[in-house]
Every structure is written in C-alpha cells, then in structure tokens.
Amino acid sequence: MRGLMSFILFVSLIMLVACGGDSESETNTEALDSENGEQTDSGEKESEEKENGNSDESKEEEEDTTATSNEPSADDVEGILLKSAEAMEDIYSFETIGKVVDEYRFLGMDAYETNTIEMKMVMLGTPMMHTVSEETEMYVVGDEYYVLNYEDNTWLYIEMDIAGLFNIEDMYTSMGSEQLDDYISLSDAFEATDNGDHFLLSFTGTDDDFKSFVEGTNLVDMENWIFEVSDSISGSGTYEILIDKATYYMTGYNLDYDLSAAGRDMWQKYKGSFRHTNFNGFDEIVVPESVKNSAVSMHSR
To answer: Does 47 score more than 90 pLDDT?
Structure first.
C-alpha cells in the first residue's frame, strides 16, 4: 500500500510540474525534494521494519530450535517414557485392535489358534468396555456384565459375584500412565529406535529374565498361561512399545515369545500385536436394550 501511495504522489507531482510551467519550477523542485525526503524516510522505516521482522523470525527460529532440542531423542529412553506417562494421564477413552496367533501344548493337548480383537474402553467415573472378538462379544458397564455365547447366540448376564473375577481396570494397566511409570524404572532394559513418526521401544530377553520382565508389565493374562504354570521357563521373547512422537501417546505394543515350562511338557509360541486409536474420542458405552432384554442369567444355565 505504501508503494502505491508513493507512486500516486509521484504521478501527481509530475502532473503539477507539467501544468505549472517554469514559474512554479522552484516550488515544484522543493516539493520533489520534500517527496524524496519522505521516500527516504519511508525507505528507512521499511528497512527498520525488515530488520525487526528478521529479528522476530530469528527469535521464532530460536524458540523452535529450543523446543526441538527439548524433545527426547531415541538415546533418551527414560525421557521418552516420562513424556509418554505425562501424556497418558489425560487419556480417558480409546479403541484397540489386536491380532493374536497362539500355538501351544497344554496338558498333553496341542493347539493352534488365531484371534482378532476390537475393543472400546472408557475410564471415567464408571469403567465401560465393549469387546468383539472371533470368540465372543462382551459389554461391561459398571456392575453390568453381558457376554455373548457364540455357540447358541445367547446373551448371558453375569452377576457380580462371578463378574468380580474380572477387573476391567486391570485391562487398562498395560498402557496406563501408572504402568508407564513402572516402565521408567526399567528404561535401561529398553532399546529405542526412531521410526519417523514414532519411537519403538523394545526389550528382548531369555529364560527367567524375560519372564520377570513381562510379569512386571501387567501384560500377563489368561492367554499368557505359560508364565503361571512354572516358576522357571526357558526360551526367548520380545516386547515392544510404540510411542507417537507428536502426542507421546502409547499407540500400541507387540508381544512375541517362544517359551517352555521347566520340568513340564508344556510350551507356548505366542505373537500378539495391539494398536490403540481414537484417544478421548468418546465418553460413554451403552449396552443396547436388545442385549439387556434378551440376556439370561449365567446362574440359570
């Protein structure tokens, strides 16, 4: 805009010179000198503003550089886990998709199983969960537990004395901020890799060292029975955590092992991969009325 105004003034002055003749030449010369002075001042102001602008840009670049330098690198496993634990404190809901391949020998029986799991969970005042897998479907809302029996397509209602065996909050601990706090104490055991948009933290161990590590992560459930049947195991395994570099949310984990129980003819080859998405995308899970109305008490079966 300033350039346009200067150009208009310059054209106006030329027109005054052309119309005014020689008698006004001195006056016009003074006007031109005055205009040149204004342009000089304007140029000085523009130069100062550019310098100030460059100074502001430099400050912003310095701030960006400082912010970047404060982000932990792959060499700082403890720093990554600390930031993730802080970020996960604000999580109250999420979705999970998991795939499991499980091959094992248990009590003389050999088996090979695969399963895909989809889960939604809310951890507010009343814990809520909806899980769908190849084996079953389940709703848990506060004290209400509903499980679909795929064999006869019947919904079962589980009373609290039975449901008390299940603790929905335990299912959250593998990715909750408290669990990440525990991981921090084990940070020296992890190796971290920068995979572009996320960090991959991994632990690989053998025999009872791997057993001790996994048992300390709250990952062990009914599927991972090999850790419960013997005080000592042999074999090896790997546990991996994925942490998003933008949000520091724990976006998934992988558990892979091939283990045998000491002194018993039992072994398990397990590979599970779980991914968490839609953080804080919902705050309620509702059990459909059709499920409630058709559910049969487990005690009556």
So the answer is: no
